[in-house]
Design a protein that fits this description.
4-stranded antiparallel sheet; two-stranded parallel ribbon; 30 strands; disordered N terminus
């Protein structure tokens, strides 16, 4: 609990660190400032670092207290995975192979091109620069509360009407548009601090000073309406009477890295991928319809096909995996369901064969997972269908119902839209004769086509298999890890940078532990520490969700993120769920993570009933800044049952909430490779990220952001600061951050090796022509619409580079000739 005493009081810069790593890449040094010497640093050895909660990932995963299950490729390591995997998986190695194949499989996309990896191909992220821009579709009106002023600080912008921006701004004479090619001068998206325009309750960007509220995201599938599948075809049918679009749409948020994601307690920037996997969609417990998967109990007294509900713990990766394949922005034609994807990948045409795994993609024979089943003579695997891969990986009773002429249907199924994807809500099922015909005179009408048990359960197989693959993507061999384990040395500059990281930079306050994020399973204690009390800058005590922060990079109303409603109108964030239920605003029909609130100091016991025994007490939060030793304390609740914790039965004294605009603190490992930065892609380089923290958040003023920002987002002004060893503080911090890169990630070596991938790099890239796929890809590569990412084996390949190095060179004419960019405008 050492770090718990400083996590919030030391906050300051949850992305400060990523920023500085880019300084060396984008034009050092910054403008000179007066040199200020720092005091002697406390960290000189790995043991010193451990007192701050730091360690190598290897040490953490080897620990006897490590949470989760052993990895397949490195059984000495445990990562956060469900404890009851054996209830579903009969062979982890087979499930790992299935998960890796599915993650990289282009045939999953409705257009035969889009895979999960299409948006997560560089160190788990996306560094494409054309057709990656979108207007701000998540914006809301600046209307806090809901008519009751006493609840304004709890309601925030939760009920604010939507105010989507549908027009790209013109900044410095440049107007973005679909298929726009980003250049270096387009970043950062916000050049002027605290400058914005108002139009009634709308917040508009101040384009004259270089601000835009557009987003850099990831382009997806060519838009169309789903009309079914043709067994054996990698391209879905487009609904009769409709036509495909002409430009691939772009997501409204930047793609977060999939590498290292196994340590996150929740997934996505807004945390909507639940830690409890329900088998069908990302929202877990939020789907109170309790969707059911199918188990074949033949040979038992119950007999036949039965249904079960699922609440798989520590499975946010499985939850996340079920989102993009149904997104009509990312991978799917509008209206496709999970059983449809199962039918597409599993069903054979009459007299033919089903889709072959990775049929258009070569796999290296030395691939760390798929190598033993790689096709030695061409694309694909030696296992010629996904059904056999599922049978090898999962328990027989999840797929072996034959049904004869019968099939499963979902007559009540619906798709409910989330922020980016469609959530599949299956509803009650029916068993029908798949060939039955209703006859009325001479007219025959077939019943809706059904699904096999394997097809109906496909989302379950997909989620668990992809989770098990992504769980292996752990980068534990960085220079920092080796130093912590005594097998490498840090330079004096790198060591100085580590001390800046935990002291003046205060980065560790939100990027703590070996994972370098407080949004981790360990940091939240598997959700038990999700709700934390904090004091705002104005002195008001408030609650927030651990690991999710508003850092003022854009107006809060542009994207309230973790503070937003789920598809059914309930809050995503634990802190808002708690205060909504406690204050009678809304009943939350599932367990709220973070309750009861623990680690509080009991004071002032009171005997209210006169029997001589105290029956009430105050519970106070005590925060200690371990850098300065300063203490802050405030009353959280009156403990009415004397159990030492605050819960829904107590008198909660805090009536404020910091939730709106907060996003998950991304980990900092391999950060040099993970641009563009922030959830909206605001920054192309880490130097530009630093601008946000040097000014204490670009939008740090009242009332727009300050009530939702954590109090320690303050001006850093590290430029010009000198360490005790004579090193400038910022380059030293950069040097330390670069020690967090795992060379295996940088060279795509095992376990980060991968199959070949064809990536759309132009928004006009057409739908796959399945009759001649080799000719299609060759033609599109020649036209500049597709880029080939060659397969790598266990030994890796060419080193990856930072995002900014892939951008087109500077082309604007009105930029400062010395710096190559407009000056960042700092205002009072």
């Amino acid at each position: 609990m050492l770090m718990k005493s400083i996590n919030r009081s030391m906050f300051t810069a949850w992305l400060l660190v990523p920023v500085i790593a880019g300084l060396l890449m984008t034009g050092w040094p910054p403008p000179a400032r007066a040199q200020v010497a720092l005091p002697t640093f406390p960290i000189q050895t790995p043991d010193d670092a451990k007192t701050w909660g730091l360690d190598s990932l290897g040490n953490m995963m080897r620990s006897s207290t490590a949470i989760g299950q052993p990895l397949v490729l490195n059984p000495e390591f445990k990562v956060p995975l469900p404890g009851n995997l054996r209830s579903f998986v009969k062979d982890r190695q087979a499930a790992l192979r299935l998960g890796k194949a599915l993650f990289w499989e282009m045939q999953v996309g409705s257009d035969g091109i889009q895979s999960c990896a299409t948006c997560h191909f560089q160190a788990g992220g996306d560094i494409r620069s054309k057709n990656q821009v979108a207007t701000q579709g998540n914006r809301r009106l600046e209307k806090r509360g809901n008519g009751d002023a006493s609840l304004d600080e709890i309601l925030g912008y939760f009920f604010a009407p939507a105010d989507p921006d549908t027009v790209f701004e013109t900044v410095f004479g440049i107007t973005w548009a679909p298929n726009y090619q980003l250049v270096a001068e387009d970043f950062p998206l916000v050049n002027a601090q605290n400058l914005y325009l108002r139009s009634g309750d709308s917040i508009l960007p101040d384009t004259a000073n270089g601000n835009r509220d557009d987003v850099v995201g990831s382009m997806g599938v060519m838009p169309a309406t789903f009309g079914g599948i043709t067994p054996g075809s990698p391209v879905d049918i487009i609904k009769t009477g409709t036509s495909p679009g002409t430009m691939r749409p772009t997501t409204g948020r930047n793609a977060p890295p999939s590498v290292q994601a196994v340590f996150n307690y929740l997934q996505f920037w807004d945390g909507r991928a639940d830690s409890k996997f329900n088998g069908f969609n990302p929202i877990g417990r939020h789907d109170t319809s309790k969707p059911k998967y199918f188990v074949n109990l033949r040979g038992t007294r119950a007999g036949g096909l039965q249904t079960r509900t699922l609440n798989l713990e520590l499975a946010s990766l499985a939850s996340q995996a079920t989102g993009p394949p149904l997104s009509d922005v990312e991978m799917s034609y509008a209206g496709r369901t999970w059983p449809d994807i199962g039918k597409k990948l599993l069903r054979a045409p009459q007299g033919g064969a089903p889709l072959r795994p990775l049929a258009y993609q070569t796999v290296s024979p030395s691939d760390s997972v798929l190598g033993p089943i790689a096709n030695p003579t061409g694309p694909g695997l030696t296992i010629d269908n996904y059904a056999d891969m599922i049978k090898a990986a999962f328990r027989d009773d999840l797929w072996n119902w034959e049904g004869g002429r019968q099939a499963i249907t979902f007559p009540q199924a619906k798709l409910v839209r989330g922020p980016l994807e469609m959530n599949f809500i299956p509803g009650d099922h029916q068993i029908v004769d798949d060939n039955l015909m209703n006859t009325r005179g001479a007219k025959k009408t077939p019943l809706p086509a059904g699904y096999t048990q394997m097809e109906a359960n496909f989302s379950l197989f997909w989620g668990i298999a992809v989770m098990l693959y992504e769980a292996e993507l752990v980068s534990h061999k960085s220079k920092f890890d080796q130093w912590m384990e005594g097998t490498a040395s840090l330079t004096l500059e790198e060591l100085d940078g580590l001390n800046v990281f935990v002291n003046q930079g205060k980065c560790i306050a939100c990027h703590g532990g070996p994972e370098f994020t407080n949004a981790s399973v360990r940091g939240t204690q598997q959700g038990k520490e999700n709700i934390e009390p904090i004091r705002r800058k104005d002195g008001t005590p408030s609650f927030y969700t651990n690991g999710f922060y508003n850092v003022g990079v854009e107006p809060t109303v542009n994207d309230i993120s973790h503070g937003a409603p789920d598809p059914f109108g309930r809050p995503w964030g634990s802190a808002r769920q708690f205060l909504f239920q406690k204050n009678g605003i809304m009943k939350i029909p599932f367990t709220i993570d973070g309750l009861p609130i623990r680690h509080l100091e009991a004071r002032n016991p009171v005997d209210t009933n006169g029997d001589g025994t105290p029956d009430q007490q105050e519970l106070w939060k005590v925060l200690v800044d371990l850098v300065t030793g300063a203490k802050d304390e405030f009353l959280v609740c009156i403990d009415l049952n004397m159990n030492g914790v605050c819960d829904l039965s107590d008198d909660i004294k805090i009536k404020a909430l910091d939730q709106d605009g907060s996003c998950k603190a991304s980990h900092l490992r391999n950060v040099e490779l993970n641009g563009p930065y922030f959830h909206n892609g605001d920054a192309a380089s880490l130097q530009q990220v630093l601008q946000n923290y040097d000014v204490g958040g670009k939008f740090n003023h009242k009332p727009l952001n300050q009530v939702d920002m954590l109090p320690d987002v303050t001006e850093l002004n590290l430029a010009g600061v000198i360490t005790p060893n004579g090193n400038p503080a910022e380059p030293a911090l950069v040097a330390f951050l670069l020690t967090l890169t795992d060379q295996r990630v940088k060279t795509e070596a095992a376990p980060f090796d991968h199959p070949q991938l064809f990536i759309p790099v132009d928004g006009t890239t057409p739908i796959l022509t399945p009759a001649d796929p080799a000719g299609f890809f060759a033609t599109q590569i020649a036209a500049g619409n597709i880029k080939e990412l060659p397969a790598t084996g266990a030994g890796g390949g060419v080193e990856l580079q930072p995002f900014i190095s892939y951008l087109a060179p500077f082309t604007y004419t009105n930029y400062d000739e010395n710096t190559g960019k407009p000056p960042f405008i700092e205002t009072p």
